[in-house]
Structure formats: structure tokens, C-alpha cells
Fold each of these.
Amino acid sequence: MQRRRITIEGRVQGVGCRPFVYRLAADFRLTGKVRNDTVGVTIEVQGQPEALDGFVGRLQDNSRDDYPALMTIADCGFETITLIPDETAFSIAESDAAGQLVSQVTPDSATCTACLAEMNDTNDFRHRYPFINCTHCGPRYSIVQTIPYDRPNTTMATFEMCGTCRRQYEDVADRRFHAQPVACPACGPKIWLADKSGITVETDSDAVIAKCAEVLRSGGIAAIKGIGGFHFAVEARNEQAVAELRNRKRRDAKPFALMAASVEVIKEYAVVDALSEKLLKSPEAPIVLLDKRTPNAIAPSAAFGTDRFGFMLCYTPLHYLLFAEPRIDVLVMTSANLSDEPLICKNEQAIDELGEIADVFLMHDRDIFRQVDDSVVHEVSGQAAFLRRARGFVPSPIIHKQSAKSEIFAAGADLKNTFCFVKDRQLLMSEHIGDLADGRVYRHYTRSVEHLQKLFDVKPTVVVCDLHPGYLSTHFAEQLDNVKLLRVQHHWAHIASVLADFDESGPVIGLVADGTGYGTDGAIWGCECLIASLTEFQRFGQLAYYPLAGGDKASKEAVRPLVGLLGEEGLTENADLLAAIEPDADKLKMIAMQIEKSVNVAQASSLGRLFDAAAALLGLGTVNRFEAELPMALEAAIETGIEGAYPIELFDRQGVWNLQYTPIIQGMILDMRSGVSKGVIAARFHNSICEGLLALAQKARQMTGIVETALSGGVFCNRYLANRLIGRLQQDGFRVLWKKSIPVNDGGLSLGQAAIAAALIEKM
Ligand code: ZN
Ligand code: ZN
Ligand code: FE
């Protein structure tokens, strides 16, 4: 006989780990105990060595069907300990109360197959129940008000469990053991249908769903309450209906997300590769960007200006019930907010603010405590890359080998904000918060910081923010009392976020392809080659500076960077091309004059603005109505299979290697004048940027011997550029670090800030 203590870490609490361990111990006839503690889960098992080995094997074998769907073991430790004679049973012990673990709160998770089967079973008492859930699925993070994660601390507190639900909740052998949101038609939340003024028009569950489906089939707009907020739903193949939604939502040109009940349906409209299928079907159920099939029957205005659709599968029981209705198989499901404001999650607020847009409201009475957007991913270089990290992923921490010396708060960036806390070995990132310039988003930010600080039980003594003196996140950080404040350059944080994702410390060659970030010289940076570790960085290379006129307007109006990039001579020579792009000659003159006189003009190495200018030059539009609209159009224009590029020129400016943009712009103009197609020019432009970054990396490797190359920045959301550059670097012998678990855009910045702060205080 032997007794072993096994400690497991990772996502092991609140996911049905203890009942699973209990059943495993019974299978192998082992005695002992299991309990949650501050590290994860500790198991003691006693029995014959072969049985113990079998137990450990099954504990780690997540390929089996009975493995808890949401459980992931990050780390596993073993030791042999003293036998306990006379032990006769295996028990689940009370949690170690010494510390409540943050990993108690798990992300919201899509309905599992077992729950779906029950929901569709006419004999089950939860037949057609829109809130069926279990330990392996259902809402979590979005309903937790405070810790510890127990029912009274969730928005389920108002629902008293019935006898049956309670028995399941308390039965260690049951799939619903300690599933906090457990509910049934007798005791749980209910749905109803309300008209646009909020008056309830139907309360019978099945009739509510049937009537909502009828509204959708006839081209109406429904506001549907989900897990992390409301969606607007509309029949996706009905152009009139989709256009009407766009019209009523105003100022919104962004592509709409789509929802379907099965991958088979999605395949009618988009190309689904094996990885994307896996992502769609995962418990996280994100929106996955997929190449459009052409032609397809989706309404053109659902997603114009891009060659991709953002699809997700149903992820709540309510979605499945709705999609089981006749002729409901693909719907637009877009966040129900006004332009870029935070998601709406309260019933009254929804009626107040969305009544002008929605024809009906599909409501329920389970409150959403935290608004959480749908996550967005796409495939890059054979792996999932995040564009937005929110529902399904937050609040899973990134766990490092080394514990941080102090607790840290990282304020993030102003665009696509997320923030991050560091506590011991855990880096805890918030979900996507949004663009802080909007007053409502900013208030949501400050409230979220406060709430998550409590939820994660952190008391930061170190605060880190962006170097940008005008960022609202910087101001917020500056106001915090009794903390040490660190300021970190934007693109250093970008590269550090990659290091943090890999739990490495560098130095690496950091290739940054970004919109804008405040540079150490006060200029607008954005296309950089850094030599960076977590404790220092050096600007090794950059895109040559060009004058950028007009402050905030510069990121909207593409002629502003274009005029700066063309220069005086280029403007005169290409007056005809410019006139075709911007008919307002006075405006062009004004911008040129502004640059000449240096009024409200910054030096910029922004790659995002170069993409804007290139798109405008090709006649693909002049205004970004939403972020990166023009670069997305430029990417969508690419003709496949084009290998050529414009000449790459590097020159040394005061010890920093500069990539010259003039040959690229001139090459494009030459091609345009000789009638080369837009698709070919768009490809050559992308290829040139790729070759330019590669050339900088090669120079950096030559000088330093470093082969590790980290890629970050919002321009890498461009899949063509990311794929091509990763491939070219790998071919050339670089080891490429490409982020696995956080976005490449500013949504990942807070993780980099946090990692830098942790490394810097370690040295202090
Ligand atoms: Zn379930
Ligand atoms: Zn019940
Ligand atoms: Fe950035």
C-alpha cells in the first residue's frame, strides 16, 4: 500500500473536479480525500501502486468523455506521504478557508451536450427549459457579484432552489453538484416577450420563442437577452431587414456577427477549416472569422467591405430553442449597444435605450451582473489568434512560473482597453472594455477596475500605465493613492505582452505593426523593430517618419497621412490621382499647408496610417468609419498568389535603422499608372511591408545574434500580413513568438505592462 499527495493547479475549481476525483477514486477503489485550497486542488489517495498509477493517468487524460469539460490542469505535483491506517473511505473535504482563490470564478461557458440532450428529452423535467445548465456549462463570470463564488453571491441568489434542484446540487455524484446557477422550470428564471415599449405580450415559454421566431421570419428586429448582454437579432438573409437594423443603429458600418445552430449551416456561407470548426464548437464558443463563400445568400449589408464573416454557434439553451424554430437557421446577432458604448445588460435600460431599434424584446429575469462581449478569434498560421478576448475566456488567468513581488494593476491602453492585475503567479486580465474616450465606457472602466479588484481580492501597490500623457487610462492611474506608478512605452508593452504570454523574459527582436503609440521622443510610433526584454528596450529600427497632420482626424481621414507620405513633390506630380481620391482641392491644400507650416503636425512612423493611405490611393475609400475599415478593405482587395514586392530600402538615421516608405508609395503609383490591377497592387503593398519588417529583423539578428522574434500590434490583425511574415521569418531561421492567449492589438497591452512592472520591481 502507498499514499500519495497530488496537487493540481490550473482551472480546477468550480468545474466539477472534486466529484470527478471522487468517482475516479471509487473506480480504482482508493481511499483518501480531495479538497480545494489556495493553490488549486489537493488530493490524497491511498491504495495499491498500480491503482494509484491508474488513477493519476485518468486524472490527466482529458480525451475521455467523462472528463470535466471545463477542467484544465496546468501543473501537477506528486509526493509519497505516510500511510493512514484504518482509512476506509474517500471523502470530499471542506475548502481550505485560508484564502479564497480567484480561479474559483470560471468563464461563462456554452451549453454542454449533456444539458442539450436533457433539454430535448420530452421526459426530462427540464424539457425545453431555456436556462438548463450544469457544472460543465452555463453562466459564471457574468453573474458573480462577489467572492466566494457561491450562489448567494451571484444574481441567482433571488431564485430559491426547489427540492429536486437542491438534491442534485448537493449530490456529489450528480452532474450539478455545486453548480451555482442550477435551476429548473419550477424554481428558476423565466423568459417573456415584450413589445418595443416594454409591455409584456407573452409569458408562456414555448409561445415566447415561437412568437419571437415569427417576428424574425417576417423581417423584424428582436433584442435578445443573453449571457453577457443583449443582442440584436435579425434574419441574416433578408437584406431589407439587415439594412433596416443598420439604419436604426446609426453610425454603425461595422460588420455584424452571425449565429447559426450548426457548423453545417455555417459551411453554406463560409469556409470552415478544421481548426475553426474546433473553435466554433468549443465551450468558449467565440465568434470565428471565416472566409466568405461566393456567392452566398447572406444579406450584403451584414458585412460589406470585408471578405470574411464572423460566425458563432448557439451558446445558450435559449439560442438553441430559438434556432429549433422553423426557418430560423442563420441570424445576425450583433451587440445591442449604441455605436461603441458598453453593452446593455439591464432590462429597464434595454427598453429605455433600445426601444427605438428593436421591434420586440426576448427578456429573462436572470440578471447579468457583468456585461461581457462575445470574443472574436481567427486562424493565423495554424493556430487561434484573438481579436477580442471576453466571454468564455475571462477571467482565466495566465499563470507564470515565478510569483510577483507585489500586487500590480496595469491600466491598459485607451483603445480596445483591457486592464490586468498581477497576484502571486497569476496575471488576471479583464475582458474587452472598449474605447475609453466614450464617457460611458470610461465609467464602465472605473467601475470594472473596482469590481474586479474585489473579485480577485487584490490590493495593488504598484500601478503601471502607458507613457502617453493624454491617455485617460494614464490619468486614472495617476489618481490612485499610495502606489508606485510606472510608465511604459506603448510598443515595449506590446512586445512584453508576447513575452508574458510565453512566460519568457527576452531579450527578443520585437516587430511592431501598429496604429499609434506615444514614443519616447514624443513622436507617434507604430512600425518599430525593438530589441526588448521585460526590463529594458532599445529602438533598433522603425518606419521612416512622415509628417501627419490633424491630430485625431488623422486616424479617420486617409488623405492626411497620404499627403504627408507623398511629400511636396509627390503631391504636384500626382495631382490628378489625388483629385480622383479627394475632390475637395481646398482641403488637400490646407493639409499640405498645415504640414509646411508645422501646425498640429506630428512625426509619425504609424503603420496603420500607411495602410489607410495605401487604401485611399487605390481608391478603396477615404474615411475609416470604424477602426481599420480602410486597411480591412485593402486586405480584402488582395489577389492571391502574387509574390512581388516594391523595393526595400533601409538607411541609418542616428543609429536607428529606418525603413524608407517612398519606394513603396512610388511603386504603387507606377503600377497604378501602368494599369496593374488593384488586387495585384494590394498584394505587392502587403508583401513590401512584410519584406521591410523581415529586413529589419535580419539586421537586428546580425547585430545581436538574437533569433527569437516577437510580433505584436493591431496591424497584425491583418491575417495576410501576419501569415506571410510568420512564414518568411520561420523560413529564414527565426523562432517566431506569436501570441496564443491574448489579442495582438491594444487589447493585449495591459498584460505586457503588467509583466514589465513585475520584472522591474523584481530588480528594485
Ligand atoms: Zn451542462
Ligand atoms: Zn428546480
Ligand atoms: Fe497599439
Note: The chain has 22 helices and 31 strands.
Amino acid sequence: MNVFVIHGPNLNMLGKREVSVYGDVDLETINTTIMARSEELGLVTRIEQSNHEGAIVDLIHRESKWVDVLIINPGAYTHTSIAIRDALLSIDKPVIEVHLSNIFKRESFRSNSYVSDIAVGLVSGFGLHSYTMALDAAVSIIKG
Ligand code: DQA
């Protein structure tokens, strides 16, 4: 059961960035939690973060050969990137969209996602737990 987690732009700044919105947990802690939960669930999980749209497209293409479920927090690219949407559509693999914050409770431009309608589902608003919930969902998807 292979899962690939992609963190998009500015998520490397978690812990310092808009703490009132995203909390004080940094990306390293999130990744440690993802790996611990993956081990409990029997998942083989790899994680990458990129601030660059094209690099995220490349990651999606590259990992599509290996992955059973792709979990992605596209950050601000959620609301802008047709390239990432097209990359996700190009790989015939289930996608789970994740956000730390509840994107529907914030500025109106964040309510538009180029990913939600092509994802199996969306977890948004539970901070670090959005990722662990997505991992639980990945197991259900893989087990059918
Ligand atoms: C985010 C929400 C996006 O709107 C924002 O641009 C981010 C983080 C989240 O995890 O809540 O960078 O994806």
C-alpha cells in the first residue's frame, strides 16, 4: 500500500507562518506524525514538499508509477493551478486533497479549488489531523 504525500508552496514555513491560522506545528512534526500513522496502518509512505508548480507536476508524474493513493496539499496552487489539476488527471490514481485550515471559512478566493472535483475526497480544517485522516481514508480506498 504505497502512499505519496505532496506538500505545496509555503508549507515549509509552517510553525512560523500565520500561526493564528495554521498553528505552531512545523512541517517536520507533521511529517513525523504522517510516518508514524503510516507505520501503524501498514502503509509505505513517501513525502515531498515543493514551492514550485512545475516541480509538483513532475513529482505527480514520477510518483504515479509507484503510488496507490496520492495525498496532496497544494497550498495556494489549490486555487490557481490548472497545471496541477491536469497532472492529477493524467495519472489514473486516486487523489485525496488536504488542507490544514478550513478553506471554506476563509477569504472567498480560497473556496475555489481546482482539485476538489477530481479528488476522491477532501479533508480540510483539522490541522495536522487532516493528514492522519487522509491516511485512514487512503487505507479504505486501497482496500476498496
Ligand atoms: C492551505 C490553504 C491554502 O489556501 C493556502 O494557500 C495554504 C495552505 C491549508 O493547508 O490550509 O498555503 O492549503
Note: Residues 2-30+43-52+70-143 form a domain with the Rossmann fold fold (CATH 3.40.50.9100).
